[in-house]
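Thread: Newbie trying to understand structure tokens

Hi all, I'm a second-year student working on a class project, and my supervisor (Dr. K.) asked me to get a predicted structure for one chain before our next meeting. I've only ever worked with sequences, so writing a 3D structure as a token string is new to me. If someone could post the tokens and maybe explain what I'm looking at, I'd be very grateful. Here's the chain:
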Amino acid sequence: MNAMKRATNLLAATACLFLVCQPAHAYIDAGSGSYLLQILFAGILGGAFAAKTAFTNLKLVLARKMNSSKGDHSAPHA
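---
Reply by user tm_fold:
Sure, no problem. This is what the structure looks like when written as tokens:
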């Protein structure tokens, strides 16, 4: 629930910034759009890779705990 409250606060703060800020009338060149798309795709793919890695690590930790809790000591230790 704490994460939901943080996300709501962040969204409210961002909305306030958009309401308070004045228009900049700034120039955005043609290369900026492709750069922003590159940042977006990199963020999505990086997030997917991080989630996959975290899920794999979680599965390994749980598998080790399950094996140790079963008491499977059939292989001798060197």
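A couple of things are worth pointing out once you decode it. Residues 34-68 form one domain. The chain is about 75% helix and 0% strand. Feel free to ask follow-ups in this thread.
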